[in-house]
Every structure is written in structure tokens, then in C-alpha cells.
Automatic annotation (TrEMBL):
Domain Serpin: 37-397
Molecular function as annotated in GO: serine-type endopeptidase inhibitor activity
Pfam families with a match to the protein in the record: Serpin
InterPro entries tied to this protein: Serpin_dom (IPR023796), Serpin_fam (IPR000215), Serpin_sf (IPR036186), Serpin_sf_1 (IPR042178), Serpin_sf_2 (IPR042185)
Alphabetized UniProt keyword annotations: Protease inhibitor, Serine protease inhibitor, Signal
Keyword Signal among UniProt keywords: yes
Segment forming the signal sequence: 1-16
Protein's name in the database: Serpin domain-containing protein
Family: Belongs to the serpin family.
Cellular component annotations (GO), alphabetically ordered: extracellular space
């Protein structure tokens, strides 16, 4: 029994026919958290969702280094970094930290697929792809869309432990595709203190103020990070994985229908990291649902809400520093797919991101042992060193 979290983002980028400062660790975590909060605030508000804004950031970060204004300014602003050198230092640091986390498996992989023939990445973006993002390169004939999609899907499957299969439909690429950028994140961990399956039982969950359903709820009493945010009016719980270098943070609103308000406050700039730093270790009686969520996100609709517009424009996208071609490039499609399963043993999660380029012809009275009863919609995120890697909202739906 595992918790699984999978994600894929596709950004086909199409071609038309005719003073820097390095960010410190806290600043990087804050920038990732801020982007993640704004990202999640644009997701559906009436059902459970799962996403990995960080996976999107890997692709957007690489794309930023291949753009000029107006796209470049939009991307820099949305990602919350100062300039290209900050992009380089940020993602080099994040990649290194991902690889160094102990007790869990947390891997990141990037790949650049380029149209077969004379097409090549420009020297600077190629250097950045390899040195900053540790990306592999491969030539593909996108005109043979069946074979190309099979290759890309196969890579995604291999990097997500076979959890994301047949992700791209065959019409995702064609003879006008020039470039596909892919990121894959994979996570697998075991709770430091497992939930006993014998204690799991059907209990009421309040979907909203008027609707209650019976769902499987896990129970455990152990030492956890615990706290309360006055601004968010929510309890916070930190459930560590083996090694205690990664954990799940659960944000549980006081009000049954308080989750959307919590997310809106996070998107408006509330510092969740400060709330997390103020948590304290204590014995807590925890009741948490078992659940599965699958989500498909149209990023071509979501990203403009974050101020990222130009990359989708055919005639003035700013994607001028990617390939050794005079063709105009633009992002034609952006989609993210994700899956999460939470249960007694631990967690397994995966994420992948791709871009393709083609041609354009209140105070709480706590009990002696605090009670954390997640019987209403809540937010959950996998954190390490203050940065969220996967985020989910659970609102009570069951398969």
C-alpha cells in the first residue's frame, strides 16, 4: 500500500512557417513555494486535484533561458527570480538537493527531444540544458508521430517507475514539431511511523457543510510536527518519511468549507514556510483519509493566469534563443497529468513535463494530546528543506 503521485506536462512549442544575484537556499524555497501557491490557486476549486508545480518550473526554467522579451520578462516574473543567472543557480541547487535527500527516493530527470536533421539547440541553451538541468538529448522524426510519441512515452514510463503510461496521444506531435522538452520527477518513501491497517475504518468525511460521505480513514498516534496558523485559520501537521529529510505537510482548515480561502491566502503571499518553522514536535492523534486522485490540467489555460502569455503567441513568442533556425517558435500545447494514492505504508510519486516545438504554416483549546482529524477538505504537500515538490487538495471523492 503506497501513496503515489504522478504528473506529466506537455508543452509543444511550435515554429512559425514564414545585474545578477545567486539566490540563497531560503530564497529558493520561498520562490518555489510562492509559484506553487499561485499555481494551485488556479486549479479547480470544487474537486480534489493533484499537481507538481515544480515539474512545470523545470521546463519553464529551461525555456526562460531560450527566450527574449516579452516572454523572458513574463517568465522571470512568474518564477520569482531576478535574472538568467538566478535561474541557473536555482535549478542547479534544486537538482542537487533532490539527489541528496536521504531515506527516500527522489529523482529528477530532464530530456530534450529535437527534430531530426539539421536542427540543433543554440550553443548557450545547449550548455545550460546539460550543465544546469542535466538534460539528455535525442533526435526524433516528429513527422513519424506514432514512433516519436512511443519513444517519448517510453522515456516517461521508465522515469516514473512505469506509473505514467501512454501519456501522449499520437496527435501531440507532427511534422511541424521542432522540440519537446521533458521533465520527470519520481518520489518513493515510507512513513517514519506507519499507520496500522487494522486501525483503518470507514468514518464520516464532510465534503461541504451539507454533504457527508463515509470513507476509509487511517489512524495513528505518534510524535509529529504540529501547529496552528492564525492567518490561515488552519491546523498544520508534518508527517515525516524515513530519514526525516522529507515529509508531508497537511494544512487542515478549521471550517468545513475553508480550503479555498486557505489557498487564496497562500496565493496572495502568506508565508506558509514561517508557519511550518513555528510548528513543534508533540504526540498527536492523527486521523487521515486514504485516497486516490487523478488530474489533468490544461496549462495553456492556467499559465496565462500566472502572467505567462507570450510563449503561446505564434508571431511574437520571444522563443528566439532555442534552435539554430529562423523559424518562429511558440508553445502550441501544455498539459499536465497527475495521480496520487495515500495509504498506510508511505508514498510514491512521479511527475513529468514536456514542451514541443513545431512549425506554424483564532486560538484553539488543545487537549493534552492534540487531535488532528482530517474529516473535511484539506491541502497536502510533500516538502523537503522548505520547498514543496508535489501538492494535492483532497475534497472527499472516492473511486
Amino acid at each position: 500500500m503506497w501513496k503515489r503521485w504522478f504528473l506529466f506536462i506537455l508543452f509543444p512549442v511550435l515554429a512559425a512557417k514564414d545585474t545578477s544575484e545567486n539566490m540563497d537556499s531560503k530564497a529558493i524555497s520561498s520562490a518555489i513555494a510562492a509559484f506553487s501557491a499561485k499555481f494551485c490557486n488556479e486549479l479547480e476549486k470544487d474537486k480534489s486535484v493533484v499537481s507538481s508545480p515544480l515539474s512545470a518550473e523545470f521546463v519553464l526554467g529551461l525555456l526562460t533561458l531560450g527566450t527574449t522579451d516579452p516572454a523572458h520578462s513574463e517568465l522571470i516574473t512568474a518564477l520569482g527570480v531576478a535574472d538568467d543567472d538566478s535561474i541557473r543557480s536555482t535549478f542547479s541547487s534544486v537538482s542537487s538537493k533532490l539527489k541528496a535527500i536521504k531515506g527516500v527516493t527522489l529523482n529528477v530527470a530532464n530530456k530534450v527531444y529535437i527534430q531530426d536533421g539539421d536542427y540543433e539547440l543554440q550553443p548557450q541553451i545547449k550548455d545550460d540544458a546539460v550543465k544546469v538541468f542535466d538534460a539528455a538529448m535525442e533526435k526524433l522524426n516528429f513527422g513519424d508521430n506514432v514512433s516519436a510519441v512511443k519513444t517519448i512515452n517510453g522515456w516517461v514510463e521508465s522515469k516514473t517507475n512505469q506509473k505514467i503510461k501512454d501519456l501522449l496521444p499520437e496527435d501531440s506531435v507532427d511534422s511541424s514539431t521542432r522540440l519537446v522538452l521533458v521533465n520527470a520527477l519520481y518520489f518513493k518513501g515510507t512513513w517514519k511511523d506507519k499507520f496500522d491497517p487494522i486501525a483503518t475504518r470507514e468514518q464520516p468525511f464532510h465534503i461541504n457543510a451539507n454533504t457527508t460521505v463515509e470513507i476509509p480513514m487511517m489512524y495513528n498516534e505518534a510524535d509529529y510536527g504540529f501547529g496552528f496558523s492564525e492567518t490561515l485559520q488552519a491546523q498544520l501537521l508534518e508527517i515525516p518519511y524515513v530519514g526525516e529529510e522529507a515529509s508531508m505537510i497537511v494544512v487542515l482548515p478549521q471550517e468545513i468549507e475553508g480550503l479555498n480561502d486557505v489557498i487564496a491566502k497562500l496565493a496572495a503571499g502568506h508565508d506558509l514556510l514561517a508557519d511550518i518553522e513555528n510548528m513543534y514536535k508533540t504526540k498527536v492523534q492523527v486521523t487521515l483519509p486514504k485516497f486516490k486522485i487523478e488530474t489533468t490540467i490544461d496549462l495553456k489555460e492556467l499559465l496565462p493566469k500566472l502572467g505567462i502569455n507570450a510563449i503561446f503567441h505564434k508571431e511574437n513568442s520571444g522563443l528566439t534563443k532555442l534552435l539554430n533556425t529562423d523559424e518562429l517558435l511558440y508553445v502550441s500545447k501544455a498539459v499536465q497529468k497527475a495521480f496520487i494514492e495515500v495509504n498506510e505504508e508511505g508514498a510514491e510519486a512521479a511527475a513529468a513535463t514536456a514542451m514541443g516545438v513545431a512549425c506554424y504554416s483564532a486560538m484553539i483549546d488543545f487537549e493534552p494530546v492534540p487531535v488532528f482529524l482530517a474529516d473535511r477538505p484539506f491541502l497536502a504537500a510533500i516538502f523537503s528543506e522548505g520547498a514543496p515538490y508535489f501538492i494535492s487538495t483532497f475534497r472527499g471523492e472516492q473511486e
